[in-house]
Amino acid sequence: MKGQQEVDSFLGAVANDDVYRTITLYMTGVLSKEQTLEGLKIRKLFNQMVFATEHSLQYLHFERREFV
Which whole number is the average pLDDT over 34-63? Predict the structure, then answer.
């Protein structure tokens, strides 16, 4: 795409279903802006590492596996 730069990898927050549900409730008028912002504050965010290109996969190294 024109104007976009390809990156090999990046780190960022994962939006879980609770975030999506909260935004949907706001957009449908069920929650006010204040309720929505408060609801989003109490959500714990988790990070993800994205390997977006074949080049970035070269830096991965398998060390072990573990059955849980």
Answer: 87
Question: Is 44 within the bounds of a domain?
Answer: yes
Domain annotation covers residue 68: no
46 contacts 14 by C-beta, under 8 angstroms: yes
- List the domain range (segments joined by +) for residue 14: 9-53
How far apart are the C-alpha atoms of 39 and 22, rounded to whole Å? 7
Does residue 3 register a pLDDT over 80?
no
pTM: predicted TM-score of the whole model, two decimal places: 0.47
Residue 38 lies in a domain: yes
Query: Residue 19 burial by CB count (10 A; 0-12/13-18/19+): exposed, middle or buried?
Result: middle
Report the amino acid identity of residue 9.
S
